[in-house]
Amino acid sequence: MKTISLLSILLCAIAMPLRAQTQEISEIKDDIATIKTDLAVLTTEVKNLKENVNERFDGIDKRFDGIEKGFDRLNNIIIACIGIPLAILAIGATVWGLLAHRRSRKDQTLEKQIENLTQEIETLKQKRIVNP
Questions:
Q1: What is the largest CA-CA distance in the chain?
Q2: What is the C-alpha to C-alpha distance for residues 28 and 35, in angstroms, rounded to an integer?
Q3: Cα-Cα-Cα-Cα dihedral sign, residues 102, 105, 111, 114
Q4: Is residue 110 classed as helix, strand or coil in its secondary structure?
Q5: Cα separation of 36 and 48, whole Å?
């Protein structure tokens, strides 16, 4: 009887950890299943978030395209506002320079003529003084 009770105690001692291990294994399996479902939920949420971000970036790209077109127009207006007056000034300066150069030539020829005439007048005066 002692051997039977000893054997039954020994078998119980062996079976108890095995039963605990099977319970732990089932708990671990349950945990793995919940982790898998959580992971699936997270992947779908990340995918949805990615699509949402992509849609927003597409909207922002469209806005920037419109803004860039506006900047192109604005650049053209600025260039026109600066370039046209500069072109007018450049043309005016060129014309003024040409006219001034012509006037200086005319002035030089007139001065030469005046000098020639004054010399002739002086020579005529001297001749008149000498031969009255």
A1: 186
A2: 10
A3: negative
A4: helix
A5: 18
pLDDT computed for residue 32 by the predictor: 87
For residue 72, which amino acid is it? Answer: D
With a pLDDT cut of 70, the percent of the chain lying above it is 77
The band of 77, judged by pLDDT with boundaries at 50, 70 and 90, is confident
Please state, in angstroms and rounded to a whole number, the distance separating the CA atoms of residues 58 and 52. 10
DSSP reduced 3-state for 29: helix
d(CA 64, CA 60): 6
d(CA 94, CA 97): 5
Q: How far is Cα 20 from Cα 15, in angstroms, rounded to an integer?
A: 9
Taking the C-alpha atoms of residue 100 and residue 29, their distance in angstroms, rounded to an integer, is 102
Which single residue is written with the structure tokens 């732990």?
Answer: 24
**In terms of Cα–Cα distance, which of 15, 7, 115 is closest to 123?**
115
| Token digits of residue 15 | 């079976």
